[in-house]
Amino acid sequence: MAAKAGVELSGTFIAKKNDSLPISISIHHEAPETKSRIFVRGIAQDRSVVSFRANARLKKGARKADAAINAKALLLSQNARCELQPDLEIDEQEVRATHTTFVGPLDEEEIFYLQSRGVSEEKAKELLIKGFLNIAQHVKQVK
Amino acid sequence: MSFTPPTYQYGFWVKDRPYFRSPHGLTKKAVEELSFQKNEPEWMLKKRLEAFDIFFKKDMPEWGADLSGIRFQDIISYLKPTAEQSKRWEDVPEGIKYTFDRLGIPEAERKFLAGVSAQFDSEVVYHKIKKKLEQQGVIFCDTDSAIRNYPEFFQEYFGKLIPAADNKFAALNTAFWSGGSFVYIPQGIHVDIPLQAYFRINARNMGQFERTLIIAEPGSSVHYIEGCTAPVYSQDALHAAVVEIVVKKNARVQYTTIQNWSNDVYNLVTKRAFVEEEGEMLWIDGNLGSKVTMKYPSVFLKGQKARGEILSLAVAGRAQHQDAGGKAIHIAPETSSLITSKSVSHTGGRTSYRGLVRVTPNAKRARSHVQCDALILDKDSRSDTYPTTQTNEASARLSHEATVTKLSDEQLFYLKARGLKEADARSMIVNGFLEPVVKTLPLEYAIELNRLIELQMEGAVG
């Protein structure tokens, strides 16, 4: 990336049946004041296997660079598998770098709330998953 | 040493019977001779020899820190008494003496830490504590004599948590281990003062390949402290310890290490705890010294509602690489783990957090959170975060957060405006950053650690 360049990468994945989904993202910051945002939401169903790797390298000279990795996945089946590996390698001082990951089930309380509003359990789950995968909405929050 | 138990056979400490110097290097013969000198049971020699073969078959770990500087043949030639009796105080490097001064370490302790005296002069204190522990049925001794006096525990647990085949350095340790502590806490007993290895009469806990086994029976609790904050002067180029801890139902074990080896040491340690139902294991792992450290204390949460916590603290300065972290393996339902890592790199040092959280199927409703915070003090230093999360259980919740920040100019400016010198301001900020880990330490350790960090920071102002 050149000076002050920026990249924003967002994506969703939906893994189902016997899918094997290796996702690998690599971002190298080499110039000053570069900025990167990786934003991923995904679900793993059935017997799918998801392996998510993201590597953000802030090399020497990438002064005031700013990198963020944010990856969350819902594991929706007892037979699905998920591995998250967000690496940060930082070789410069004046930088900001963060990553956040989460993997887990849907929130029971949220399902319960929707049910108390007359939504069936099935429908509630569907709404919550759709909302989770709706990246556009999330990306706005990140900025 | 009138209270030395008759079975306490430190024959090789006596001058007229010199401990063997291993002219053979890294050989089977050296293993056999070591076992013979220790007057060990046959099965232990067998274990050592098996491990010796495994060591040669195992590859060097290539996923972590740079270990290409290790020369095994040279290392094994140091397999003589761990404390060099012949060393004189005058030979201890000035830097180490200066640090002792600044930390306010008592004279007797300094000589011990520098390896000049093999014995820390704490007999009176130790004697009292020992009596009380004996009344409670607590066993606390060095591993060498424990293996002769309490073989039943070793046959059951030795190498069961960390088999020789676990990794190359665990194999090396199993083949050549010497020293370390054995701790046994009977059912329902709470040991209310921290057990410190250097309370032991012949504090040979700082060996090159020390081996520690801790067993906490149901409902018991203990806090074990390994090493100390003062720099340990050592001639060994490699330290590869193995620590195995069994936490039974409802028991609690806290294991605290503040490692501060001198800056030429490779410190490659395997530490693992098995935690049964509703048990709790807490690792507090501080890494300040050594040239390269690779150490990832682990908790295997095997019983329902077992809990594991790992607090990792790393400070890396010039030419140092601290590759540290933690592992939590969730095997049973409703288990929880928390890993907190705080690292500081300065003056060209490198810190890496490396961790693993794995949830196996049927670990229903397991929970884990990993928090890594790194602080970089200058442009020559480096910080990495390598976390891995693997899950196979749909009801488990795993989260991870990491931040890397620099020392903030605003904070520095504020403190300087209040009349603090740059160096003081920096060490104050660093100490504040590390506070969540430091405050879990016993008071005297926390104080020493704070002083030590201040001392390191002095050199870091550029």
UniProtKB/TrEMBL annotation, chain B:
Pfam families reported in the protein's UniProt record: SUFBD_core, SufBD_N
Domain SUF system FeS cluster assembly SufBD N-terminal: 39-196
Top-rank lineage group of the source organism: Bacteria
Signal sequence interval, chain numbering: none
Entry's Gene Ontology BP terms: iron-sulfur cluster assembly
InterPro entries: Fe-S_cluster_assembly_SufBD (IPR055346), SUF_FeS_clus_asmbl_SufB (IPR010231), SUF_FeS_clus_asmbl_SufBD_core (IPR000825), SUF_FeS_clus_asmbl_SufBD_sf (IPR037284), SufBD_N (IPR045595)
Domain SUF system FeS cluster assembly SufBD core: 199-433
Family: Belongs to the iron-sulfur cluster assembly SufBD family.
Name of the protein described by the UniProt record: Fe-S cluster assembly protein SufB
Organism (species): Candidatus Terrybacteria bacterium RIFCSPHIGHO2_01_FULL_48_17
